[in-house]
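user:
I keep going back and forth on a fold encoding question. Separate attempts, laid side by side, tell us more than any discussion would. Would you put together a sequence-and-structure record for a protein of your own picking? Write it directly below this note and I will take it from there.

assistant:
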Amino acid sequence: MKKIAGLLIGDECDQQLLGLDEKHDRLFIKKDQELILFSLDTFKVVGRFNHMGYPDSVIFTENGRYAAVVFRQGLSYRNKVYVIDLSEDPADIKFSYQGEAADSYRFTIHSLSNYPNHILIGRKHSLELFDCEKGKASEIFSTKKEIHLVKVIEGENEDYIAVRYRRPSGKSARPTRRAPDTRDPPPPRCRKTPAGSPTAGCRRRTSPLPCR
């Protein structure tokens, strides 16, 4: 699986390298709310796209033909996921909207080595194996819990998926236990008895004691 690290390439405005399209020798660059495609063959800008939010992440399929592009909506964690075909003319790439991913989308969208045309999308309450070639999900795994993190562990013939769920709000990680009462026990309470009676009629919550 390819690992793409972000690189700051300017400080006058919000410019950042989001990804490298190795198959077509193109860079995906974020500039404020604009997504720029830059050709390494011609050293020219070959595409500009905006009006979809702030470009934030680019995830390429294993075969390098498709990519999922995530646009953040304002300052919140809301986002929009688009799938694009990198074999199209870069000046006229069509962005196919595929809904919203989980809030922690940087850690819930992955490519899969054993599914070269697919993207794994972790949404708020589901995991979706999206077939970019067919333009639809081939498998959807729903859950009542809120997905927080998704990790893909690659095997030789299979990919293993680990999911971490978000802790429900208002609930602590461990059940609280009442601390033991370390205060001194209350003194025994005695009941006066007529003179000459046998040992006292003392009452206490634990065991009787003689009165004095």
